[in-house]
Amino acid sequence: MSKDNVIKLIQPGTFSDQLTEVLRNGACALLSQAVEAEVTEFLTKHADLKTGDGHRRVVRHGRLPQREIMTGIGPVGVRQPRVRDREAGAGDPERIRFTPAILPPYARRSKSLEMLIPILYLKGVSTGDFEEALAALLGKDAPGLSASTIARLKEVWLDEHKRWNERDLSTKRYVYVWADGIHLQARLEDNAQCILVIIGATPEGRKELVGFTDGTRESAHDWRVLLLDLKRRGLSVAPELAAADGALGFWKALGEVWPKTREQRCWVHKTANVLNKLPKSQHAKAKRALQAIWMAETKAEAEAAFDAFIENYALKYEKAAECLKKDRVALLAFYDFPAEHWKHLRTTNPIESTFATVRHRTIRSKGCLSNKTALAMVFKLVEGAQKSWRRLDGHNQLPKIIEGVKFIDGLEVVATPADSQPQTAAA
Q1: Strand pairing report for 411-414 and 407-408
Q2: What is d(CA 6, CA 4) in angstroms, rounded to the nearest whole number?
Q3: Alpha carbon of 411 to those of 243, 295, 344: distances in Å?
Q4: 332: which residues sit within 8 A by CB, 6+ positions away?
C-alpha cells in the first residue's frame, strides 16, 4: 500500500468535525474520571498513616502538567493528580508513590495504536511515510509519531522478538498444539515464503504462541527446523495431539521430532479440499454430508457417516471420495479426547482467527520488508491478540490427559474390576 493510498482513506482535518470533538472530550472526561477514582482509592488505602504531628501522611498535591495520549480517535489530553508523601523526601526509596494503572509513566500512545503501526508496516507503509499516514488517520496534530520515533519503536520490537525467540522453554508443556502456514500481505523478501505458526494449549487451558518463523508451507525441512529449535530450548515433552491442515510438510516433521503425538486433520481445510473436487451443484449437499461426520455424537456414528459419504460419491466423484478417505484416522482422532475439547481440536481456528487481519488478501506491495522485520511486526500483533485469547472449555480435563486417562467418544473411561468391561463416566 502506498502513501497515497493511505491518505485517500481519511484526509487530514477530517477529525476536526464536531462528532470527533465530542468523542475526544468524552474520552478525556472518562480518562480523568478513571484516574481520579484510582487516586481516591490510593488515598483511602493509606488514610491511616499519620505524620509525627498527627496529620495525614499521604495527601493530594496538585497535578502534573498535561500530556497527550494518542488513541484511535486522535490525541486525548489528561492531567494526572500528584500525590505527596509528607514523611519522605524526593529521593527517599521508602517514599510512597502513586502511579495510576490506567496511565503508566511516560505512556504516550494507547495499546490499540501500537497494534496499528505493525499493521501499516505489513501493508506496505515505509518508515518515512508513517508521520503523514498516521496524521491522516489520527489527525494532523498527532505528536510523537515522527520517522525517528517509528524507527526506534521498530528496533525495540526487533529486540523483544529476538528475546522471545530465544526464551527458555524447559518449564513449559503443551497438551495440544495447532500448526499452520500463514501467507501475509506480501511484504516478505521471498514471494514463496509464509509464516509457519505453532500455538499451544497449556495444562491450565490457556492458549499461547509457541513458535513461528518464516519458511515454506509444504516444506518438511522448515517445519523440522522450527520443532527442533523448540526442543533444543527445553520443550522436551511432546504434545498429546497436533491439529493442522493435511497438505503441510508439518506432518512429516512431527513424525520425526515428536513421533508419539497424535494427528488431527483440520475439518475446515478438509471440507474445502473435498468440495474443490466436486462440481458446485454438489457443494451444499456434500457439505451437509461432511458435517454429519464431524458433528456425530460418537465415533461409531461418525464412521457410519464417513462410509456413507464414500459410498455415495466414490463412483462418480472418485477424487473427492479419495481426498476424504486417505485421512480417515487423523480426521476422527478427536473422539479419543474430552468432548469439551472437540470444538477446539477439529480445526486450526486459533491460528486462522488470530491472523485474519493480516492474511494475504491483496496483491504484493512495492518495497519489501526484510523477513526479520516482518516477523517482528507479526510478533507484536500476535502478542496483542494473545491477551484476549479464550481459555479452552473443559480445562479441568487437561490434567487427566497428561496423566494418561483414556476417553471414548469424549467421555472418561472409568476403571472397573479386571473381569468386567471398562465403562465410561456419565456425561
Answers
A1: antiparallel
A2: 5
A3: 20, 16, 16
A4: 293, 299, 302, 303, 306
Average pLDDT, the chain: 80
Taking each helix axis as running N to C, give the angle between helix 299-313 and helix 318-325, from 0 to 180 degrees, rounded to the nearest 10.
160
> Which grid cell sits at 408?
471414548
- pTM for this model (two decimals): 0.69
Residue 246 to residue 87: CA distance in whole angstroms: 67
Above pLDDT 70, what percent of the chain? 70
Residues 403, 380 share a domain:
no
Please state the domain count of the chain.
3
More confident position, 12 or 54: 54
Establish if 48 belongs to a structural domain.
yes
Domain encompassing residue 201: 169-263+368-391
Same domain, 66 and 123: yes
Q: If you count them, how many residues does the chain have?
A: 427
- Residues linked to residue 214 through DSSP beta bridges, in sequence order: 195
What's the CATH number where 216 sits? 3.30.420
Is 354 inside a domain boundary? no
**286 located within any domain:** no
End-to-end alpha-carbon separation of the chain, Å? 53
> How far apart are alpha carbons 216 and 247 in whole angstroms?
12
Whether residue 409 contacts residue 342, with contact meaning beta carbons closer than 8 Å, is answered with no
Cα distance between residue 353 and residue 351, in whole Å = 6
Q: In this structure, are 85 and 233 located in the same domain?
A: no
Residues 109 and 3 in one domain: yes
Report the sign of the C-alpha dihedral through residues 216, 219, 221, 223, in that order: positive
Between CA 412 and CA 425 the distance in angstroms is 6
Give the E-state strand segments of 234-284 in sequence order: 241-244, 262-265
CB 324 within 8 A of CB 309: yes
Tens digit of pLDDT for each residue in 102-144?
666 655 555 555 566 676 666 555 665 566 656 655 555 555 5
Query: Is the separation of the CB atoms in 83 and 98 below 8 Å?
Result: yes
Residue 59 included in any domain: yes
Question: 219-248 pLDDT, tens per residue?
Answer: 899 999 999 999 999 999 999 999 999 877
User: Helices marked H in 233-360 — which ranges?
Assistant: 250-257, 267-275, 283-294, 299-313, 318-325, 328-331, 342-345, 349-354
